[in-house]
Structure formats: structure tokens, C-alpha cells
Amino acid sequence: MYVAGASDGLSAGVTNLDYAILRYTPAPEIRFQSVDFLTNPGIRLSITVPTNVSFVLEGSSELVNWQLLTNFPSLPVTSFQFTDNLDPLIPGRFYRSVWKP
User: Fold this and answer.
1) Cα 74 vs. chain centroid, distance in angstroms?
2) Is 2 a residue whose pLDDT tops 50?
3) What are the backbone angles phi and psi of residue 3, rounded to the nearest 5°?
4) 20 part of a folded domain
5) pLDDT above 70: residue 9
6) What is the pLDDT of residues 59-95, one digit of tens each?
7) Greater model confidence, 32 or 12
8) pTM
9) d(CA 27, CA 24)
10) Which domain holds residue 62?
11) Which residues sit opposite 63 in a β-bridge?
């Protein structure tokens, strides 16, 4: 959602007529299609997304602090793969995708 316009509150000598035009854009559906465990300590994620949608992939070991793993630019494709070569000292990792309008 974003503000498309707003007044200065003054209209023909009358005050308190501020307004804003809001536009709601629903987030696109980004899905994890599959998770493949690799023979080395790693995971391959397959992700589907509508065409021309940019997003980032983030990882966390405790669901509080998230770190950027990679950026996926807006491209005319519907599937991406990401391989995470896990550090053996990390007991596990959670993943999330975040839409970047």
C-alpha cells in the first residue's frame, strides 16, 4: 500500500480537508516447490514465482534474525533454484522469501 496523493489541508479557505489516495497491491504468490537434501552438507530449494517478480531469499537458524542469502531479480521466468551449502556448525536453517516490489 502506498500514498498516491495528499492535500496540504487548505481548500478554498477551509482547513482539515486532508486526504490520501491509497492503492493496495496484493503480494504475489511465491512458493517453495521442493527441498532436496544433497550428499554434501547442502540443500537445493526450488521456488516458483509469477513472471517479472523480484524477491529475496533469507535464512535464519532461530526465526528471529534473518540474513540475506540471495536476490532474485525481476525476470520473465517462473522458477528458480538456490543451493545452500550449509555450514556443518549450523544445526538447521529456516528459509523465507520476501517480495521486493
Assistant:
1) 12
2) no
3) -85, 125
4) no
5) no
6) 998 999 999 999 998 888 889 999 998 777 777 889 9
7) 32
8) 0.71
9) 9
10) 28-99
11) none
* Inside any domain, residue 3: no
Q: How far apart are CA 52 and CA 46, in angstroms?
A: 17
Q: Extract the C-alpha cell encoding 30.
A: 511465491
CB contact set of 98 (below 8 Å; sequence gap of 6+): 55, 56, 57, 58
Task: Let me know: does 69 contact 6? Beta carbons within 8 Å.
Answer: no
Q: For every residue of 68-82, which 3-state class applies, written as one string?
A: EEEEECCCCCCEEEE
Separation CA 36–CA 83 (nearest Å): 9
- Give the pLDDT score at 25: 78
Q: Strand order of the sheet with strand 55-60?
A: 67-72, 55-60, 94-99
Residues 47 and 30: beta-carbon distance below 8 Å: yes
Please state the domain count of the chain.
1
